[in-house]
Amino acid sequence: MPEVMFAGPDGRLEGRYHHAKERGAPLALVLHPHPLHGGTMNNRVTYTMYQVFQRLGFSVMRFNFRGVGRSQGKYDGGMGEINDAAAALDWMQALNPGHGGLWISGYSFGAFVGMQLLMRRPEVSGWISVAPPAAHYDFGFLAPCPCGGLMIHGDADELVPEASVRKLVDKLNTQKGVSVDYRIFAGADHVFAHHADAIGAAVESYVSGEIARKHMALAAD
After folding, report:
1. Which one of 16, 115, 132, 160 counts the least CB within 10 Å of its CB?
2. Which SS3 state, helix, strand or coil, does residue 61 take?
3. What would the mean pLDDT of 128-150 be, rounded to a whole number?
4. What Rg do the C-alpha atoms of the chain give, in angstroms?
5. Counting beta carbons within 10 angstroms of the beta carbon of residue 18, is it exposed (0 to 12), middle (13 to 18) or buried (19 or more)?
6. 16: which strand partners?
7. Rounded to an integer, what distance in angstroms lies between the CA atom of residue 201 and that of residue 100?
8. Which residues contact 16 (CB under 8 A, 6 or more apart)?
9. For residue 43, which of 26, 72, 68, 20 has the smallest C-alpha distance?
10. Under 8 Å CB-to-CB from 129, ≥6 apart: which residues?
11. Burial code of 77-93, b = ≥16 C-beta within 10 A, e = fewer?
12. How does DSSP assign 134-189, residue by residue?
C-alpha cells in the first residue's frame, strides 16, 4: 500500500493508496473518525474497510484529513474536511479514467463527511456508513439521497444512541428508489472494539452482492 501525498485545498494531504491490477476497476474512498478525538486513517475500522475493498478488486484510498499525521492544515469543523475528501476523489479519478464505479465508506465523523460528499458527487454508485453520528449532526441534507447503501451501528453505542440512527434509516427508506441495508451489531459500542472483523464481513457481503446485482442487471439489458 504505497504512501501518497496529494494536493488538498489547505495544503498537501497524506494517504495510502492501493491500485487495482484490473483495468477499469471500481474506486473506493475510506474516511476516518473525528480528527480531534484521535481519528486517523490507521483507525482499525477504517483500515479493515480499506482491506475489504482491496480484496474485492477496487482501487482504494484512505487518507488523513487536514491537520492529522503528515497532512497539512488544521481542523475546519467539517466543511474543510468535506473538501479534503473531494480532493482525494479528484486525485483517484484522475489516475483512473474509465473506472468501474465509485464508492464512499466512512466511520463516525467520516460517515458524516462521506454522506455530505455523496450529495455533491452524482457519480457515486454506493456507500457505507459505520456509526454515523446522527445524534450530533443533522443529516437532513440527504433529501433526496441519490442511492442506497449499507449502514452499521452498535446497539450499545454510548455516544450515538441506536434510536437516532434507526430514525435516519427509516427516513431514508421512505425515499423513492432508495434502499438502506441497516445492520445492528449486538453489544457493540461506538469504537467497535471487538467487532472490526464483523464489520469487514458485513461490508464485503454487501458490496460484493451489490456488484453482482448490477452485473446481472447489465447482462439482462
Report:
1. 16
2. strand
3. 96
4. 16
5. middle
6. 3, 62
7. 22
8. 1, 2, 3, 4, 41, 50, 61, 62, 63
9. 68
10. 105, 106, 111, 114, 115, 149, 150, 151, 152
11. eeebbbbbbbbbbebbe
12. TTTS--TT-TT-SS-EEEEEETT-SSS-HHHHHHHHHHHHTSTT--EEEEEETT--
Cell of 110: 467520516
Provide the grid cell at 143: 433529501
The whole-number pLDDT of residue 216 equals 82
- Residue 205 CA to residue 208 CA, distance in Å, equals 5
Q: Measured in whole angstroms, how far is the alpha carbon of residue 197 from the centre of its chain?
A: 17
C-alpha span between 27 and 82 (Å, rounded): 18
Helices (H), the chain: 44-55, 79-95, 109-120, 162-173, 196-220
Question: What was the pLDDT predicted at 189?
Answer: 97
How far is C-alpha 107 from the geometric centre of its chain's CA atoms? 7
The grid coordinates of residue 204 equal 464485503
How many CB atoms neighbour CB 70 within 10 A?
Answer: 11
Which amino acid would we find at residue 118? Answer: L
Cα–Cα distance measured from residue 58 to residue 38, given in angstroms and rounded to the nearest whole number? 27
Q: What is the pLDDT of residues 54-77, one digit of tens each?
A: 999 999 999 999 999 999 999 999
Q: How confident is the model at residue 159 (pLDDT cuts 50, 70, 90)?
A: very high
Question: How many CB atoms within 10 Å of residue 2?
Answer: 8
